[in-house]
Amino acid sequence: MATLSDISPRGSHWFTPAMGLAAVIALTAPLWLEPAGLYQYIGIEVAIWLIYALGFNLLFGYSGLHSFGHGAYLGVGAYAFGLYQLHVEVGLWGGLVAAMLAAGLAGALVGACVSHRRGIYFALLTIAFGQVFWFSAIKLHWLTGGEDGLLNIPRPDLSLGVVRVDLNDNTSFYYFVLIFLALTVLLMWRMVNAPFGRALQAIRQNELRARFVGYEVWRFKWMAFLISAMIAGLAGGLFAMAQQSAYPDVMSLHQSGLIVMMVLVGGGLVSFWGPVLGVLLYFLARDILGGLTETWLLWFGLLFVAMVMFKPEGLAGVLQDLQHGRRGPAKTSNPSLEVD
Amino acid sequence: MTYLLPHLFNGLTLGLLFALIALGFTLIVGVMEVINLAHGSLFALGAYFALTLLGGDWLLDSAVGQWWTALPLAGRYLVALVFAPLLAAAAGMLLELCLRPTYGKVPLYGLLLTFGAALVIEELIRLIWGTGEQHLPLPQDINGAILLGGIIFSKYKLFAAGFALLAVAGVWVFLERTPYGAIIKAGAHDSEMVRALGYDLGRLRLLVFGFGAALAGLAGIVMAPIWGLRPHLGIDVVIPAFLVIVLGGVGSFWGAVIAALLVGLSVGITGAYASAWSLMSMYLLLIAVVGFRARGLFGRKSALEN
Asked: What is the pTM of this model?
């Protein structure tokens, strides 16, 4: 089985036909979404979730740190954006910076508590911290508005010198989010192929060995946690703009579990682009299956269970197998995914 | 003190029930090194099976159904108390069969698979029993309130606490005083050695999973009248159960029992002073304990840390 570590930073082309196709699809989305029977808003939602999933995979796929409470940072970002708009000023950049800083602060604190942990204990602690954030969001009524959340968050205009763009129009907001998505992709691609990203992958494969080689393992884990929380915060800020509200539901264990499912089903464990496939599959399933049957989540859950049982490498793993021709089961097993 | 007494009692009841859920959980973790995120869903399934056995609409039309619902509630309740956990055990065994491809890989896959299973079970419950909140009917004998020393106690909570205490004691006797218990404990300690001694490891795992699921189902039936029945009950319950075993130390019987009582009491006492925050206290308890003792109160090193 191929793993993330097998993706060479050099050697492969920096631009492949598939990436070109994806870029064309993303750029032309507002033109064909409605004729295809969908709606403009789904483009925004998918783009925001892609930012979130790509940031999450730095932690989940590359570092092998399985956070089950990541919705908390998305939620913190959304609340920070909303509170900034409602109580400080109506401003785009200030709000987004506030979202990233607040999520970063939360991530830095939690990261400091969990970075010395490994495996299931790491997952457990992230669940507990995620629940604390979720619970606080519901109970701190004076700050967060309780179960209803913050309502009527304005979408500030984008002002670039003399040009002012009204983001209340879903098409212009879509392109705005798309720019952030492109930046996230670039940042992540640079990061995972830089020495920092390589060190994270070394930690995933064998934490003890990475420590003996001389890396200060917990600091790398903490950094990965912090960065991925900040990106979740950015996604949260954009999500608050998109929804024009912020509510506790995004921080629940369910929602935090969904991002894990998306990233795993897409193949975040074996490919940089896995989370992209997973997010697309989830939203397509939600809108197409969801249109046909009320119980689409049941079918998505069954698909997920089958995926974990038979093809944990996800969609990206299936595509890789097709690309390399079916040579039966992989010859070399991946040491990081098996315990002896 | 008299002000606190009912809260302490509530906490103790909650703790005993948590212990019952956590024991099944910790057995499964111990023998299989699988964190079963669907454990709460098995708990919910137990409660819903009991609801159906007590007389759902599905059998009202048939002659057998009319004969059954005409029987006294107490008798039907006892039948449900026996058969609903068995049905939950069957569901648990099915889950174990699904888990087999993940053995020998990192524990994450077991966690992920059971998370998916929890989602599937929750949706199935919505599909079969509807999305609304439902209530489990109770026999007269264990319903209502009782006056003890000037304080009103819920009769049902006394029953639940006593029942949970008996069940926990039963599990202890089973594990410590029977040959089957010895095999299970040996399996938790070193499953390779158990296989080398000629025991069928596959069957042992299947049975342990079934046993754990039955305990979860039993706890579900006893807990349902206190917490109510709703489709997302599974997720609501699995988190406290989870906290309990991490707090107590994975795979430890007394760790699970003591941690469950601690969690129950902390929820009960917080409930006395700041009821809105009572559930929060257990997360803070976990973070405080695990911050200092990575493996919980009585934990030992396990493969789950890889």
From this structure: 0.86
Does residue B132 sit in helix, strand or coil? coil
Contact with chain A for residue B94, Cβ under 8 A:
no
Do B254 and B298 meet the contact criterion of CB atoms below 8 Å apart? yes
Q: How far apart are CA A58 and CA A272, in angstroms?
A: 9
**A251-282: per-residue pLDDT in tens?**
988 889 889 989 988 888 888 889 999 999 99
Contact B67, B204 (CB under 8 A): no
Comparing CB atoms, the residue among B101, B107, B126 nearest residue A309 is: B101
| Amino acid in position A143 | L
Q: What is the predicted ipTM?
A: 0.82
Which residues on chain B are in Cβ contact (under 8 Å) with A338?
104-106
Report CB contact under 8 Å: B305, A121.
yes
A93 Cα to chain B: minimum distance (Å) = 34
Q: Give the three-state DSSP class for A40.
A: helix
Please state, as a whole number, how many other Cβ atoms lie within 10 Å of the Cβ of residue A12. 9
The rounded distance, in Å, linking the Cα atoms of A138 and A247 is: 9
Kindly tell me the burial class for residue B183, based on how many C-beta atoms sit within 10 Å of its own C-beta (0-12, 13-18, 19 or more): middle
Q: Tell me which residue has tokens 């493996």.
A: B295
User: Tokens 């993706």 correspond to what residue?
Assistant: A7
- CB-nearest to A305 from B98, B107, B280 is B98
* Distances from the Cα of B95 to the Cα of A124, A215, A305, B42, angstroms: 21, 40, 10, 10
In this structure, are residues A297 and A313 in contact, taking their beta carbons and an 8 Å threshold? no
Q: How many CB atoms lie within 10 A of CB A27?
A: 11
Helix or strand or coil: residue A329? coil
Which pLDDT tens digit goes with each residue over A45-104? 999 999 999 999 999 989 989 898 999 999 999 999 999 999 998 888 999 999 999 999
